[in-house]
Specification:
- Helix 2 packs antiparallel against helix 9, helix 4 packs antiparallel against helix 8 and helix 5 packs antiparallel against helix 7.
- A hairpin with a 2-residue loop joins strand 3 and strand 4.
- A five-stranded mixed sheet has the order 5-6-9-8-7.
- With 311 residues, it is α+β, with helices and mostly antiparallel strands.
- Among the domains are: 57 residues, no CATH class; 105 residues, no CATH class.
């Protein structure tokens, strides 16, 4: 019948030490486990075998603890939480890595210890809490910057821009034709990029020009570098005015400031460093001679079976 490590230890060390003579000499020796030798015949042999097995168990369990501590630290190095950032007119999202932890190497056994042992269970729960929080933050950034919800419901950064352009220039359609093979278009992601960067730097002046592109078309150029739109001259002049006004729009400024605030919370999350320090402290404790909790959590360390083994 399976019995716990605690019950083994209590049964071995419950008797006080006694003195006895060594049969091979007259010297006095101390017996710290007299209760185990109080038997006859085969029972004494079995008890002595148990006395030899237990130190091996502790030695092997120390090795097993180090294996799992190493696996946890390797997981910590691979660990990445969900994050996102608005850049170049797009919301770039990086998905989490190793949440939940994979079964790579010894980590599948370490997960069982983390789930059982109260003192170290917080490692996993903290990781899950951070990931949940990051996903919520990314959702907030998405709603702030790119949501296409109706303008009556706190419009996003991009929604404010496209709605104002469409009202001022109804004949223009948004496009991503950077080669300008189409006419009567505005390049929405370039306009998003320019406005976001200007507002982020607290700049209120933008260099735009309406240039002749031939074939009765004009282009709206940003710093003579790239086009923001193409169409009739009157439409490009209206588009130019809208972009200039958006640079100083208070609603746009609020959205950019909110993005920066949320993004800063993601990249400076102190909980991540606390988690990694907790893992580092556990690793140091184990490699300093300590034992990992949750003694019978996995099949490699169940005291009712053979001593833990390396794989």
């Amino acid at each position: 019948m399976a019995w716990s490590l605690a019950s083994q230890c209590s049964s071995i060390f419950k008797y006080p030490p006694i003195r006895r003579y060594n049969r091979n000499g007259r010297g006095m020796v101390y017996d710290y486990n007299p209760g185990l030798s109080r038997g006859y015949g085969d029972n004494t042999t079995a008890v002595r075998a148990e006395e030899l097995r237990l130190p091996r168990f502790f030695m092997n369990y120390q090795s097993h603890s180090e294996q799992l501590a190493d696996a946890l630290q390797e997981w910590s190095e691979r660990l990445r939480f969900t994050s996102c950032k608005y850049e170049n007119g797009f919301l770039d999202t990086e998905n989490s890595v190793e949440i939940p932890p994979s079964d790579r190497g010894f980590m599948r056994y370490m997960k069982k210890h983390l789930e059982k042992e109260e003192r170290i269970k917080t490692i996993l729960t903290t990781a899950y809490e951070i990931e949940t929080s990051h996903r919520e933050q990314c959702k907030n950034i998405q709603e702030t910057m790119i949501s296409d919800a109706p303008i009556s419901i706190s419009p996003s950064f991009q929604k404010i821009i496209t709605d104002k352009i469409q009202r001022a220039c109804p004949t223009l359609k948004k496009s991503r034709d950077v080669n300008l093979t189409e006419s009567n278009i505005y390049l929405d992601f370039y306009i998003f990029k320019v406005i976001f960067e200007k507002v982020s730097r607290n700049e209120s002046v933008i260099t735009l020009s309406v240039d002749d592109s031939g074939c009765r078309n004009c282009v709206l150029m940003y710093q003579k570098s790239f086009a923001l739109g193409q169409g009739e001259e009157s439409d490009m002049n209206r588009l130019k005015k809208v972009v200039e006004e958006l640079i100083t729009d208070n609603n746009i400024k609020e959205r950019v400031q909110e993005h920066d605030r949320l993004n800063k919370q993601l990249i400076t999350d102190d909980r991540i460093m606390v988690l990694k320090n907790q893992i580092e402290e556990l690793w140091t404790f184990i490699h300093g001679g300590g034992y990992l909790g949750g003694f019978d959590a996995c099949e490699l360390c169940d005291p009712s079976k053979s001593a833990p083994r390396r794989i």
